[in-house]
Write a structure and sequence with these properties.
The chain is mainly alpha-helical and about 80 residues long. The chain has one domain. The two termini are about 25 Å apart.
């Protein structure tokens, strides 16, 4: 799992990257921090997803699958506002 910075270290790095601007857009900063966690959560879900029973095909066989794209796209980053 990737190392996600703590809120404090993210804030400090954000301030430094924005030249210590006293008018930092807090809303933008919080959205960027949330995106890090959502991206990581989706990545972990796709990698650790388990194969489950699917539809019955024939002769006692079942189609088994996991759709990683549906997991990765289940919560678009555009939902974070």
């Amino acid at each position: 799992m990737a190392q996600i910075p703590t809120a404090k270290s993210f804030y400090q790095n954000y301030i430094e990257e924005n030249n210590h601007d006293s008018h930092v857009d807090i809303e933008e900063m919080l959205i960027e921090f949330a995106k890090l966690h959502v991206e990581q959560a989706l990545k972990e879900a796709s990698e650790k997803g388990e194969i489950g029973d699917g539809d019955f095909i024939s002769d006692g066989h079942y189609e088994k699958f996991i759709d990683k794209e549906s997991i990765l796209n289940s919560y678009p980053l555009t939902n974070i506002k």
